[in-house]
Write a structure and sequence with these properties.
Layout lengths: L3 H13 L2 H8 L3 H15 L4 E3 L4 E3 L1 H26 L6 E7 L1 H18 L3 E7 L13 E4 L8 E16 L12 E3 L8 H10 L4 E4 L3 H9 L4 E5 H4 L5 E3 L7 E10 L6 H17 L6
Parallel strand pairs: 3-4, 3-5, 7-8, 7-9
Antiparallel strand pairs: 1-2, 5-11, 6-9, 6-10, 6-11
Helix pairs in contact: 1-2, 1-3, 1-4, 2-3
Length: 288
Amino acid sequence: MFDWNDMRHFIALAEAGTLSGAARKLKVDHATVARRIAALEHALGETLVDRLARRWRLTEAGLDVARVAEGMQTQAHALEMAVRSRNTGARARVVVSAPPAFASVFLAPRFAELASRHPEIELTLLGTQPMISLSRQEADIAVRLTQPTEPSYVSRRIGSVSYGLYAAQGYISRASGEWQFIAYHAALDHVPEQVWLLDFAGGRRIGFRSNDLVSQLAAAREGLGIAAFPHFFAADDERVIALPVDAEKLSRDIYLIAHVDMRRQAAVRLVMDFIAEKFVNDFDNGER
């Protein structure tokens, strides 16, 4: 019989596609992943991975095992979630995932109040760009700018986030034909704020790209170009200003999301209600 921990390391490799990616996912070193996979191969009597010079590649047997193991992992997560959801008390660990800027600028400063109200809850806040999986318990609550399509997720709209075009003081005194722009990586050209920015740019040069809003803001402060920022993120920064342009305004709905099996868990409900309350009462969505 194989060790389930060995299988977890193999699943991480299959999902990440690289040894280093699996190690990062599991927060272990490369050697541990390699050792665990070797132990699984020994237990199953099959070679699951071709260890090539530059990368590891799943064998046919490895692909078969990965397909079956994914279902096993899904069932394991469902079982654990069902048990956790029966906890009617508030004492629990709750993990919240949110877009990085929203996590650091809005949520983190307010979680001190939540901790004071409910010291029995252990909070973890993940400022993450990728869509984390609630089904795999990578988080208990997600804050997203898109409504989920997963049938096992429940969501509620708590409001909207509005955007403006920002640049360094005095930047727009330049001839408009000389304006440059600050954008996400081209892989995110489909994101609404990127579409909005590129439409306004109208083919003018993208002088800097970054998927990190903090980096974009630093670049805008130094006069590198015009960027699309949520007002809550940039309006109070004294080194940039919102451009008084006639561009059509942009806002995006914001949602609180949980797995259907976890929404009844007392601690999860408390944290979701707190975030919704703070958004309604504290969120400043206006321009300066």
